[in-house]
Structure formats: structure tokens, C-alpha cells
Amino acid sequence: MAFSTNKRTFLNFASPAPLLKTYCILVAIELALKDAAVPAGRGGHDVPTMLDNVADSISGAPSISGALKSISLQLRRDLASITCQEKGGAVGNVPPYSYPYIRYSRHSGDWGGVNETSPALISGLEVTCNNLLGLLTTHGSTIGVHL
Predict the structure, then answer these.
(1) Contact yes or no for 21/126 (Cβ under 8 A)
(2) pTM of the model
(3) How many structural domains comprise the chain?
(4) For residues 47 and 41, what is the distance between their CA atoms, to the nearest angstrom?
(5) Among 11, 50, 13, which Cα is nearest to 30's?
(6) Which residues form the domain of 34?
(7) For residue range 24-39, what is the model confidence (pLDDT) as tens digits?
């Protein structure tokens, strides 16, 4: 558990801002998955693929495996629904394999109504991340992923 302090720090960061709270949860989960030696997938920040890898490695707990797969799919959808400013200034969507792009979200009201992310989409991502956090907190010792 090499990242214990970092995981605790990110999980204990109190913020009412959904995007910041979500980002901190994803950082802590990524560190926990890397601590468990789960292959990082594409680009090193591919939390959905890492979750799929954990789900595929679980034997004897199909409900946990299924829940991980379901949340992984929802996380991919939620991340891809967030509009962001890409490198070079182009408008795009957050790649599901690289959640740090959420730092460049195009929030409603900041871009004159052009390609903005609604607060509802960010709230949806927050709900998914909280559900994932709950699942890993409850079943982490069973699957070897410790927050």
C-alpha cells in the first residue's frame, strides 16, 4: 500500500464543488487500483478498463464482478459526456481512458453557450463516482483494492 497517504488525502478533501470532489475520488481510486497492481490500460489513467480488469479477475463473487462492470460502463459514459477543451484549443469530450481531462471541462456560463457541459452531467459523474467509491469501500478487501 504505497499510496496510503495520498489516497487518504484525496478522499478526505472536503469540497462542495462536484467536479473537484469527483476528481479527488477518481485520483484515490486510480491509486488504489495501481497499488493492487491492476494493469492501467491505455494512457495510465484508464480507470474504467482497470475496473474491468478487476471484475474479470474475481472468482466466486459474480455480483461484485457484475457491479464493477456496470459502474465501469457508466463511468465511461459519464466521462465521455463531459465537454472539454483539448490540447491545442479544440473542443472535444473527456476520453474515458483519461479522466484528468475533466480539469478542462467547459462549464455552463463560461463559454457563451457554445459546447458547454451542463451541471447535471457533472452531477451525474459525481453520483457514479460516489457509487464506485461505496462499492470499493464495501468490497475492497474481497477484491484486493484498498482505499
Answers:
(1) yes
(2) 0.94
(3) 1
(4) 8
(5) 50
(6) 4-143
(7) 999 999 999 999 999 8
